[in-house]
Amino acid sequence: MHNSEFHRVAVLFLVFLSCACIREWAKAFIAVKLGDPTPRSEGRLTLNPIVHLDLFASVIVPLIIYFSIGWFFGGGKPINYNKNAFKNPDKDELKVCYTGLLSTLVLCLFVIVVGGMVIKVTGSADLYQLIREMIIPICVLLTVFHSLPIPPSDGAILFKHYTKMSEETYHNLSRWGIFIFLFLIFVFGRVIFGAIALVSQPFILLLNLIT
Question: Would you say residue 71 has pLDDT above 90?
């Protein structure tokens, strides 16, 4: 691996890890606020990225995908919560899921606005490239994939709620979730990441307007 490629992989991994970490922390935070102490007792109410790492989903899978199709995809260690500890179990579980989905978009917009103003003042081309080519696509990627109704994503839990799927059926589907994700990525990866690039365009436009 050339130094330039190693540098790109390292930066992509750090951006991915940061986005995934903030996403999992946001879900832990809202779960605790809604009355479930589980994330706090498991040490997940922190922005320490090590706590949110999963060896398979956060390291092995992203590296395999990168060297296969040239981009990153993976996830953090899922937040454990007991929905029965919530005041309104079903409604509050939906809030946790929506928090997970929206957190990466909010993070993306925050980075665009703050980073855009810094770029406007400093004229930093490196920061512009970092936001445009890495942070925006990864935030969009995490949001889109976690929206899919494939366990254990937030989208799958939302789908379970709105279709009144039984817990048994959901549990059975969960066994195949990671394999479905990997199948989609390796078979339709280039199409999917091309679509992610298109979805990223409004965010890039906003960045360009600010800078």
Answer: no
Count of other CB atoms within 10 angstroms of residue 134: 18
pTM of the model: 0.88
Work out the angle at residue 155's Cα, subtended by the Cα atoms of residues 60 and 62, and round it to the nearest 5 degrees.
15
Beta strands (DSSP E) in 61-130 are none
How far apart are the C-alpha atoms of 203 and 209, rounded to whole Å? Answer: 10
The token pair that represents 156 in the structure block: 């799958």
Alpha carbons 124 and 73: distance in angstroms, whole number: 27
Q: What is the dihedral of CA 202, 59, 184, 18, to 10 degrees?
A: -20
The 10s digit of each residue's pLDDT in 44-58 is 999 888 899 888 888
Amino acid at 32: V
Determine contact, residues 75/156, Cβ cutoff 8 Å: no
Helices (runs of H) and strands (runs of E) counted in the chain = 9, 0
